[in-house]
Structures are given as structure tokens and as C-alpha cells.
Amino acid sequence: MRFTLRHLGATVLTLGTFTAIAFGTQSASAGTVDPASCSPSNPRAGTQLTAAQIAVYGKNAGFSQSDDVTAVAVSEAESSGWTNAVNVNGDSHCSRDRGLWQINDYWHPEVTDAEAFDPTSAAQAAYRISGQGTDWTAWSTYNGGAYQQFLNEAEQAVEAAYGPTSTPPMGALYSMSHTGPGIWHVHGWAADPDHKTTPINVRVVVNDASAVVLADDNQPDVDANLPGYGPNHGFGFDFGVPSSPAHSSVHIDAQDPVTHTWTRISGIYDFIGGMPATHFETATHNPDHTVTVKGWAIDPELVSPSYVVIELRRGSTVLASDRFYADTPRPDLGQLFPHYGPNHGYNDTFGIPTTADTVCMTALNAGAGADTPTTCKPL
After folding, report:
1. CATH number of 277-378
2. What is the pTM of this model?
3. Which of 77, 154, 183, 205 lies at a CB distance of 3.0 to 4.6 Å from 147, suitable for a disulfide?
4. CATH topology of domain 11-162
């Protein structure tokens, strides 16, 4: 275990094939010794274990599947899998880093040589010192990143030790924006905790249809917030909302790379596609010979209010008409269609021509598509 600045402000000095530590700001002559005066290093002693064998010891010690990947990679970087490896440091104690995880005898005298050189006991000690796999900053090969070159091998070894992954993928949908008529853009990230560096598939599900892409875009915040995962877990792509049915349900899933099962990583969003969605709710004939019409209309290509037309007819003959925005606030619409907001209702009153017997409403389409079929109510 090659300790770094975590202990007494130590500075790491590379001496031959091992790492020594100079404490504080003392000079080498005052705070270090010639390694030749210490007992010799023996970095290839004992039995050399494979990554798969180390993974089993880590699993039995209590590491979770994802943390065991780090444990195996750190062990490989520290000792190359040699069970009795010893690297002597040129500090004033001639301290020794011992075993699979190179546990230092000065900083951890509670770990005997026999325990450090026994794979079962060494894994248990590493589990304890690392805070049950949550804090590897005591190991310089972790802090310096040397362990990362062993992560792919470690992932395969741990997968063999544990069987198919049981930890579902995770991720987030950062944004969903309207980029054109019927077209939306999604942006986010997805990763699998048991295969940290491996990009995984994500899919956008629209009603019963879906499209799959690989989440391998550069997303630096993933690497910053999830050390060891790397940045290549982002996704961004466009999808179309169909014109029929009028209402569409959309969500994002991520795929486990081993079991190939899908896990939802976003909420469910409701969209309106095609021609305007509308509901002509009521037409109230008032005593003063007016009519109050109430309803709502949303055009899928507009977040802003859209036009509706009210016609007063006798039979099929239009006697009077008016066009106006459906812009009355309707909190229920804001909850049902959060991307469009609440301002898509209407509640307006019109005078009735003497011979009119019907009031009709049409929601006007913006852009591609058609107006809604006219809906009529008797007066």
C-alpha cells in the first residue's frame, strides 16, 4: 500500500521498483534512509494470482460487485497479484508494503505479515481500510490513476466471480427540447455500475415504438462525479412524435450489457402530436341571448397559445364567426402537458344571431398538418 499525502504530508519518491515516502518537508538525509540498509524488497514473492482469483477473495471479504472491480484493479496495480510481494520504503522506519494490496506495516501494524500475505485476510484488511470499498485514497495507485489500466480486466474477473450483474444501470435525462415540427431532442447520460467504463445502450420509447442508441458521447460531469467510470456515457439524439394518436407517452430506458434487460432512467412525458389536440367542453345558452363556450386547444408545434374559430350557424350556413387565441390559464392542462404549460384554454361569450341554432368550434393548425375536424353543439 503506497501511501501519499494523506499521511503526515508525505511526498512520494520513486526509488527503483518501489515507492518510498519522505515525510513533511525534511530532507532525504534527515527523514529517509538508504533502502539498501533496510531489508530487501521482494515484489514477486509467493503465488501470483489471476484477477479472477483476486475477485473471489474480494467478494468473500464483503465487497459489493462494483467495489470489487476497484479492489481487483488496485491489487493488480499494487502487487501484480503476488501474494507475498514486499516493497520496502526508504523512510526512517524502513516500512514495508505487503501482500496483494501492499498494506504498509508502519501505518497498519494491526495487520500482521501472516495476514498481509494470506489472500483471505489481506482482502478483509483491504475491505476494512477502504471503508468497505468506498474510499481508496490510501492507495497511491488509486490516487495516481495507475489502477485504471486494470479496470477492464477487473470487470471481466468480477463478472465471472459474481455471475450476471445484479446492479441495474443508472442515468439521467438532462433535457428534452422541441427542435422542429414533431421533432424533440433528448440529452442525458447512462452507465452500468458493474461495467463502469463500458458505454451502454439507451432507448427512447414513444408509445409502442422505440429507437436505440449507444450512450458513448463525451460527458465530463459523469467522470467528475463518478470516479472510475470515464466520461464516455452521454447521449443526445432526435426523435419524432407521431401525428397519431394525438397524445403520446415518452420515456428513456438504459440496457444492462450482460442481462440485456432495460431499466427506466427518466420519468414518463406526455406529448401531443399531429393536428391540434382540443376539447370543446361546453356551450351555455345565456338568458341575454348570448352563448358562452368553454374548452381548450393545443397545437403540438407551439408552446404558445394557438387559434380557435367559433362559428354560429343555422344548419350548415355560417351566420357569424370569430377567431381568437386559446390563452386562458388552465392549471389542469399545465399538469397534464407540462411542456406546453397552462395557457391554452378558452372561456368566451358571443352574441347569438336570431336564427342561429348551432355553435361550432375548430382548432387551427400551425405549420404542417391540418385543422381539427369541426365540433358543433346545439343552442
Report:
1. 2.60.40
2. 0.41
3. 77
4. Lysozyme (1.10.530)
